[in-house]
Recover the amino acids of this structure.
């Protein structure tokens, strides 16, 4: 006889080492309390599009340094539009550090 699985209010954790597991975990995240954490997706995307457009200032090419700078803008929109999520502030700090390293390496030629 097979073991009975205990019932729980939470779904079982997804195996993140297979394509199916990763996609199911993503569906759980997107279908979960995303709006509470990050704010309404359309409002956030509109806000972010405006910020990215202003940041690029008419340029059509995105540089390696633009990536961390624009990710900071993403985290700022999430912090402004969603509920308090300490991860937003940790990520802003992390992207700032990455941006500093990218800038220094670009300046040094590599």
């Amino acid at each position: 006889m097979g073991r009975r699985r205990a019932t729980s209010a939470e779904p079982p954790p997804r195996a993140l080492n297979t394509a199916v597991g990763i996609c199911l975990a993503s569906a759980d995240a997107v279908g979960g309390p995303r709006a509470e954490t990050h704010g309404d997706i359309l409002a956030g995307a509109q806000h972010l599009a405006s910020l990215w457009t202003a940041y690029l200032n008419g340029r059509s090419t995105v540089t390696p340094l633009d990536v961390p700078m624009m990710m900071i803008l993403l985290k700022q929109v999430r912090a402004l539009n969603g509920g308090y999520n300490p991860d937003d502030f940790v990520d802003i700090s992390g992207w700032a550090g990455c941006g500093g390293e990218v800038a220094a390496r670009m300046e040094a030629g590599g």
